[in-house]
Amino acid sequence: MKNFAPTINGLAAQNTNGFLGLSTNTAFWTNVANPQSPFSLLHLNTDDIAQQIGYRSWMNPGLTFTHNKDLMYVGPLRNGATDLTDAVIVWSDNSSGEIGPDNLRFIFSAGNGLGAVETPEGPQGLETARITPWGYMGIGKRWNNALQPQRRLDVDENVPPSAAQFRVTYTPALVFTDFQTTSQGYLCIRPNSLRVGINLNGADFPTEALDVNLGTARLRNMPNETPNVLVTGVVEDGPGDYVLNYLEFTGDPEDVLAGDGIWVNIDDASCEWNEVNNGGSLDLVMGYTTPSTACDTGRVGIGLIDPAARLHVINSLDVLGETVLVEAEATNDPSVGHYGILTRTEGGGDYQVAIAGYAKATATLIPPSHPLIGTMGSADPNGFCAHNAVGVYGEILNPQQTCGSSVAGYFNSSIVVGGATINISDESVKTDVNSISGALDGILQLAPKSYYLSNELLPGAAFDNDLAFGLIAQEAQQVFPNIVKEVAKPLIRDDEGNLASQEGELLGVAYEQLIPILISAMQEQQAQIEALSAQVSACCAVDAGNRSGALLANDILIEQSANRLDQNNPNPFNSNTRIGFNLAKDCRARVCIYNASGQLIDCLIDEFRNSGAHSIEWNTSDTV
Predict the structure, then answer these.
(1) Is residue 486 part of a domain?
(2) Last residue of a domain, one of 155, 186, 204
(3) Considering the domain boundaries, does residue 545 fall inside one?
């Protein structure tokens, strides 16, 4: 025993008074590399240099072993509180550069007559368990430096098929569950009650070999073999609680499973495709309702399991082709009409659509120029004489019975026309035909505007964002009431029946009806021009000598009553022409030349001039 305070593992002034050290190597007390003092109350050593790396200052009340450059401690450890002390086993290894790390092993070395039952393996004895420095504990007898435990608890046992590596016991030898991993890696669970429960609470017990609560089963990579039974479920204790059962196949390909869980032969089924004689034709029908029977009156889905309509078809295959293809093979009988698809909706409600086309892109179209078309119609004479070919036809039946406006087509966005837009204008369908009068006065009262159509002011609209030109319907209605029409914006619902756009009443302008009004206005204007030209001609016919004196009243009216710009002469010309103009009063005069695009070419004069007639010559060679 030494009575001083040495430094151990870098911890200075360790109190080792009263400690006892026993060593088989005297160098333990004399080697300057050692603290030359025991580490704990009892320290057993065999080395010349004791390993200090694993030492802690709290190890003084226990038993320390230092051997083969390693350290082990067994003793108490105070755990924070005043009266809380744990029993601990500590083992440590030398520096990382040495062989290791070392394990904590549990070894049985035989005796008490057990050697005949389990012979200890090797001179070290029979290892039953070990703990690695990483906290992995292995239970078994085959662990070695090359084969270490790989999990927090790793049970190793090469047992016969009837045994198990691991047992959870409630009552020893009476109530337990064995777990076994076979040589093929299979997991076997063998409760002595022959029942396993998953997600059952403490008050519930499994009633079947496998009883699962609050969950479902998922099977992956199952073999694809021809089945001979169908796994079914029988209600045990209300919805969601089922006991698995099985239903054997009958082997008859004509048998189907009915909704009551019974195999039914197709020939005996009451709801199927039936042949019905309707006036001499043999029709194939299904899903019909009669006063006496109703057969499959629900929805039909193709390509999906939850149809949203009477017939709902989805083509989810990544192949080119039509989802639904209907072809009508027409006969040569000219009295017989043919419809490829004829749809009809009848009844009340706020919304009825006979045919709705909806094209929606769910990814970028490749290439981007590919079209996205909601509804497409085409007519192909196919090399034969077709009396009339119409791609899309729309009409309003009985328009006089419509409460609101009636239009055969309503387009919520721009329209592109590849051919002529033709309005019916045949004389045979016109009555009360009259000439248009006062067209010029009306045209002069119209006030064209530039504007932008707002989608925010009309929810559900799809106006272009471009600058537009046109008339204000309310203003045009005051001048030409008949070209302004009331237009009903229809109620629009999406493909799921949700409201997409509210209906509303608007005013629209039939711009094509302005064409004959403009023609009439131009004719009226031409008549006025011709009348004025006649007056000018009469004025010019007066003798020049007389005109040099006093002007006639008409001359004064024409030449001096207003500012006027005369036609240049000659016209056309090569490089020189003369431009005449008249000023009603003394003023600053400015005569400039512009091109057809409105760009300034040249200004000939910009100066004060007296009232009366003037002329100026323009030489184009002087214009830069």
Answers:
(1) yes
(2) 155
(3) yes
Residue 524 lies in a domain: no
Cα–Cα–Cα angle for 87, 90, 96, nearest 5°?
165
Q: What is the per-residue pLDDT across 332-373, written as a single tens digit (0 to 9) for each? A: 666 666 676 777 777 666 667 777 777 777 766 556 566 778
Tokens encoding 534: 């006649």
The two tokens of residue 37 are 């003092």
DSSP 343: -
User: DSSP string spanning 369-384?
Assistant: TS---S-------TTS
For residue 399, the surrounding DSSP H or E stretch is none
> What are the two backbone dihedrals, phi and then psi, of residue 211, each rounded to the nearest 5 degrees?
-125, 110
The CA distance from 522 to 439, in Å, is 8
Q: Tens digits of per-residue pLDDT, 47-73?
A: 888 888 899 999 999 999 999 889 999
Q: Please indicate, yes or no, whether residues 26 and 151 belong to a single structural domain of this protein.
A: yes
Pairing assessment for the beta strands 104-108 and 126-131 based on DSSP bridges: antiparallel
Report how far apart, in Å, the C-alpha atoms of 167 and of each of 152, 153, 157 are: 17, 13, 12
Q: 103, 126, 155 — which closes off a domain?
A: 155
Give backbone dihedrals phi and psi of 268, rounded to 5 degrees, phi first. Answer: -95, -5
Split into its structural domains, the chain has a count of: 4
Give the mean pLDDT of the chain.
80
The verdict on 124 and 100 lying in the same domain is yes
**Span 585-624, pLDDT tens digits:** 888 888 888 887 788 888 889 898 888 889 999 888 877 6
pLDDT of amino acid 478: 93
CA nearest 568: which of 621, 615, 620, 623?
A: 615
Task: Give 395's strand partners.
Answer: none
